Amino acid sequence: MPYLELDNVSFGFGPMSNRYEVFEQATLSVEQNEFVAVIGFSGSGKSTLVSLLAGLEQPDSGEVRIGGKPVGEPGPDKGVVFQNYSLLPWLSVYGNIELAVKQVFPKMGRDERKDYIQHYIDMVSLSGSEWKLPGELSGGMRQRLSLARTLAIKPEVLLLDEPLSALDALTRSQLQDEIIRIWEVDRRTVVMITNDVDEAVIMADRIVPLTPGPSATFGREFAVDLARPRDRATLNFNPEFKHLRNQVTNYMVSLDQEARRLSSTVELPLPDIQPVRPGPQVSIA
């Protein structure tokens, strides 16, 4: 049985008279400890998907389940790493993680908590920066801190909402490797949102495209059968990698072209407005 499920989920925003349908009967299944990458264009509902999986939003119809049970309110079983870090700027690296740990494990003793937090700081290679504030860290270091804070609450499901999209190419590739290394050591069920096909192929077990919105759903799935660990230095010469990348890219292009074709056939009624004729001009001496 799948561990994480969206079962015929529909969701939209706004009043029923002028409603924007984000998802329409969207269905997705993720196995326990599987790493799934969801890719899609802007406006296809990627961040809304994370909100539904995390319990921040509830579907209009259908159901979201974890371990066979409906997803309720947000909780520590669902950890989210956001694109914008979401760190408290007045707390240090240690303090940001400690705040989360205290909330989830209130009975943990002071000495045990100190060692526990240090373990996650070391895990994301932030040793020596324990007492730095977020403003003193680079973008990559801040994202590693955000990841450490989320992992420290030991979520059953890790949701990554385009966490690397704002980083430069070198830092992004380093953090991709870091996330995979951590996932292989500390297995969790992972759903990563991305718009980067290469990133999805390098990191995931399976790639699931979102169709363009409105009324988005999930398209054809692609299994990533490349052996782990994946060496990015040699992947560009791997025919399986190149074939899969081209398959996914061509499929996404075809989805975009079909969405553009359909939108071009929709006739938008123009209001019946007539120009106002100017009245006689009056001169003031």
Automatic annotation (TrEMBL):
Keywords: ATP-binding, Hydrolase, Nucleotide-binding, Transport. One of its GO terms (molecular function) is ATP hydrolysis activity. Pfam families: ABC_tran. Its EC number is 3.6.3.-. InterPro entries: AAA+_ATPase (IPR003593), ABC_transporter-like_ATP-bd (IPR003439), ABC_transporter-like_CS (IPR017871), ABC_transporter_ATP-bind (IPR050166), P-loop_NTPase (IPR027417). It is an enzyme of class 3 (hydrolase). The keyword Cell cycle does not apply. Residues 4-237 form the ABC transporter domain. This is Bicarbonate transport ATP-binding protein CmpD. It comes from Posidoniimonas polymericola.
